[in-house]
Amino acid sequence: MKSTVKISLPDEKTRFRVEIKHAVAIGPGKADVLERIAGTGSLAEAGRSLGMSYQRVWSLVAAMNADFVEPLVLKQRGGAAGGGAQLTPTGEQVLKIYRLIERDAQRAVSKRLPLLVGLIRPEAGTGR
Questions:
Q1: pLDDT in tens, 26-41
Q2: Helix (H), strand (E) at residue 58
Q3: Is 21 strand, coil or helix?
Q4: Is 60 exposed, middle or buried, given 0-12, 13-18 or 19+ CB atoms closer than 10 A?
Q5: DSSP code of 18?
Q6: Among residues 10, 20, 41, 95, which is most buried (max CB within 10 A)?
Q7: Arch. (CATH architecture) of 28-117
Q8: Looking at residue 15, what is its pLDDT?
Q9: Residue 83: phi, psi to the nearest 5?
Q10: Count H helices, E strands: the chain?
Q11: CA 61, 68, 21: angle at the middle one, nearest 5?
Q12: Among 42-46, 62-66, 119-123, which is the least confidently predicted range?
């Protein structure tokens, strides 16, 4: 298992991506997609609220559904009753576990990050 930490300065917001096995990963983007699907019941609405195309959301969901032991999202095509999407119990569990990992990692990083940031030149990363 490999985790990737991405720090965005100047706000020092830390984002975590967990890579498991060779290509299975969950990070803030996929977690946000799951969270928005849970809240809206719609792939299209989740995409709109995240500034993603429907195709991008659909491809992230398809990847997650293929990678985990059970699908994380159930989709229903449109029709008389309309389409929709919802998280499965496994999807809810994956989202909860990821958010807990994210919270725990954020706490751990926040203890040492200010020390590291204090050693970085103010102009670093600006191309000067």
A1: 899 999 999 999 999 9
A2: helix 54-67
A3: coil
A4: buried
A5: E
A6: 95
A7: Orthogonal Bundle (1.10)
A8: 76
A9: -85, -175
A10: 4, 5
A11: 110
A12: 119-123
96 is written with which tokens? 């909860």
Contact 7, 113 (CB under 8 A): yes
Give the pLDDT confidence of 48-102 residue by residue, as tens digits.
999 999 999 999 999 999 999 999 999 887 655 567 899 999 999 999 999 999 8
Domain chopping of the chain, boundaries: 28-117
**High-pLDDT (> 90) share of the chain, %:** 49
Distance separating alpha carbons of residues 57 and 30, to the nearest angstrom: 9
User: For residue 7, which of 20, 19, 17 has the smallest C-alpha distance?
Assistant: 17
Distance of CA 25 to the CA centre of its chain: 9
Beta strands in the chain (DSSP E): 2-8, 13-20, 24-26, 73-76, 84-87
The pTM score is: 0.77
Which H or E run contains 29?
Answer: helix 28-40
The pair of three-digit structure tokens given for residue 85, joined into one six-digit string: 């999407």
Amino acid identity of 71? P
